[in-house]
Amino acid sequence: MKCKKCRKAIPDNSKFCNHCGAPQEKKKLYRRPDGLYEKVMTIDGKRVYFRARKEADVYKKIHEYEVKREEGPLFTEVAEQWHTEHWENLSPTTQHGYEFPFEEIKEYFADKRIKELTHKDINSYIKQLPKSYAKKTCTNRLNILNMIFKYAVVEDIVSENPCIYITIPKGHGSKKRKAPTEDEIGKLNAGIGIEHRGYPIGLLAVFFYYTGCRKGEALALTFGDIDRDAKKIKITKSVYFTGNDPHIKQPKTEAGIREIPIPDCLLPLLPQGKKDAYVFGRSSDAPIKKDFFDKAWNTWRKGTGLSLSAHQLRHGYATLLYSADVDAKAAQEIMGHADVSTTQNIYTEVSPSRMTVVTERLNQYLQ
After folding, report:
1. Cα–Cα distance between 39 and 154 in angstroms, integer?
2. CA pair distance 268, 81, nearest whole angstrom
3. What is the pLDDT of residues 211-240, one digit of tens each?
4. By C-alpha distance, which of 108, 18, 22 is closest to 67?
5. pTM
6. For the structural domain made of 182-358, what CATH number should be given?
7. Residue 359 to residues 318, 346, 350, 356, Cα–Cα distance (Å)
């Protein structure tokens, strides 16, 4: 059939034109006491109301609604829906790491409708990320996109997830955290006495390197977790921050609950205190606050001339285990990695001094 107004072809039995929006029925619309014309339609199980001063404008609104419904919502609208419903399910640490990438992704796809986005669009976004980004930085962005599209599939907003076959291309995310060099380790040990307003930040830095503890694990440590006789530290909890305030949480995987050996060089340096007191708290009854830690760490960096992070020192501990011939499986348990591949990836970064030892052993074997 043809539209009664623009004369273009439209589906049979259409109630309005999908080109110009003109109504095809002559039936009068209900007119409310306030003078507005109204039409109520049930769409996707919900009653939707269309009102306007003129009947033609009501049908125009219906037409615009149908067009928009066919195109689907904007990506940013769906992203916000996912954020509202699922953000709280993420750990506070993950939330902190995802905050900036989430906003960056919304800005990049701001004018796109989610139904329009294809594998090519997602791949283009990943490829345009700076090559200087660490692999985890790129992976985080792909993870966020994947979660948003999974949500969209479940909600029947889109039919498929275009992130499924996307990977980080070679050359991107190639930046890796490097373990401390021998020179940096010397400065680390020399700076053990550095304090910030009485806080032993130099000792904490050394503790990171010789135990491989994550920052949150070290800050949650109490004296009752240290077994001096067995020379072991029991890791059962971790500190996370909401804003500036510290909170205690359990490890997110079973692998996080573990025992760590205390090297003989570290044991006499550790202070002693009451069982429930925090080893690296500013006071004995509470973990340190985020802003105080950040200021203390900056003091340590200035005092040592190092720009290392707590995670790089943990990375250095993994290198120590490798140099001490600790096999990857045992190192996985000590480090608290949920997957041994994480440990093996670190082990592939052989230090120059270790490579010399390997070469000498190979030559001796071949003689």
Report:
1. 31
2. 53
3. 999 999 999 999 999 999 999 999 999 998
4. 18
5. 0.62
6. 1.10.443.10
7. 21, 20, 12, 5
